[in-house]
Design brief:
Structural class: mainly alpha
Number of strands: 4
Largest sheet: 2 strands, parallel
Helix content: 55-70%
Number of helices: 14
């Protein structure tokens, strides 16, 4: 691995490994937080890189994300100091913010400051890093899912170390997107072997039992096909006809929650949406992690299951500004790279599930994709 791509190597580790590590450590009864392992591994890689390069370079793209992290930390500390009641929810979420969001993003930003990054790197090299890591991790994760999954009463699955089905479906959907996206973006020939893996991942995505990752994949994959140079009517038929056949078969034969007509979760989401919209808007919002205590009237970490609504409710007009910047950055993505499609995938997911902490993958992928906008560093495939 050339050091000029180390930042993306570390990014791919943070995006793909946490669910797999959670399952493996749980099966082995080892109490090690998933992100902690990746943080130590990343530090080791960075030490080797620093020894090799000696010099750092200024990456202006990181300033925006450092400002965002600084505001999150400021808002969290302000809430902890000024909230009248001694709520535990903001304390718990603030600790997770430091560990799951701030530390990985700082590591990734720093990994992009090495002087060797000045050299041009072919687009295909970047995409290949994400492809190799995601494919390897996804295969292992899917095998563990097949053999160790446990069925919930409502028709969804959990795994040892992962008690929420959404954190099973998301990595499967991301792995599927990276796998097939690599062939389209790098104009690789897709044979029956590759297509078989595509169907394998797609069936497991349906079987995993959550809708947001399923819909997010379909939307992002559609964008990828439309933007790809390899797009043709033939490629559209080759992929979407089997997708429709698979979905139709599952609708007829399977009881998978993903394709069921149960709408109870939508009902709760709409109630949360109405509550946020009816709230009085302020400059700085209601405070970091205060949605749960206000909405449920209990000291509990809870959120509106929509990143934009969370930013609006907890950070007020400042949250709206942050959301506007996020959307602007999404529209500026360089769609020649896999991290850009991961940004879109995780962003769509963030509109249906998770909070700032739970959507760490979105922010991490956005950091990497923003760095890829530097046209002086990256070049098209020769």
């Amino acid at each position: 691995m050339k050091f000029s791509t180390t930042g993306h190597f570390i990014t791919a580790l943070f995006l793909s490994l946490p669910p797999l590590i959670s399952v493996i450590t749980s099966l082995l009864s080892i109490n090690i937080p998933s992100y902690l392992f990746i943080i130590f591994l990343s530090f080791f890689i960075l030490v080797l890189q620093i020894i090799s390069t000696h010099n750092l370079r200024n990456e202006r793209f990181g300033f925006l994300f450092l400002s965002f992290l600084s505001y999150l930390l400021f808002a969290g500390i302000w809430t902890l100091i000024n909230v009248e009641q001694n709520f535990e929810a903001p304390k718990e979420k603030f600790i997770n913010l430091l560990y799951i969001v701030v530390t990985p993003i700082l590591i990734i930003i720093f990994s992009f400051t090495m002087k060797n990054h000045i050299a041009s790197v072919p687009t295909e090299n970047i995409n290949r890093i994400y492809f190799k890591i995601y494919f390897t991790v996804s295969i292992i994760f899917c095998i563990l899912f097949i053999f160790f999954r446990e069925l919930e009463t409502i028709g969804r699955y959990i795994l040892p170390g992962i008690n929420n089905p959404i954190w099973i479906s998301r990595p499967i959907g991301a792995g599927l997107l990276v796998y097939i996206g690599y062939f389209f973006l790098n104009e690789k020939k897709i044979n029956y072997y590759h297509f078989s893996f595509f169907i394998f991942f797609f069936i497991l995505l349906i079987e995993s039992g959550t809708r947001a990752p399923f819909l997010s994949f379909l939307i992002t994959f559609s964008i990828l096909i439309l933007k790809s140079k390899k797009t043709s009517f033939k490629s559209f038929i080759i992929f979407f006809v089997p997708i429709l056949i698979t979905i139709s078969t599952y609708l007829y034969l399977s009881t998978s929650y993903t394709l069921s007509l149960s709408l109870w979760s939508l009902y709760y989401r709409l109630n949360e949406l109405k509550f946020v919209i009816d709230s009085t808007i302020t400059l700085f919002g209601n405070g970091f992690s205060m949605f749960g205590p206000i909405y449920l009237n209990v000291d509990e970490v809870y959120y509106p299951h929509n990143l934009i609504l969370e930013l609006y409710f907890e950070f007020g007009l400042v949250g709206i500004l942050i959301s506007a910047v996020i959307i602007y950055k999404i529209f500026k993505l360089n769609l020649n790279f896999l991290p850009s499609y991961l940004v879109i995938y995780f962003f769509i997911n963030s509109l249906f599930s998770g909070d700032i902490i739970g959507n760490t993958a979105f922010f991490i992928s956005l950091v990497a994709a923003s760095q890829l906008q530097n046209k002086n560093i990256y070049k098209s495939k020769n």
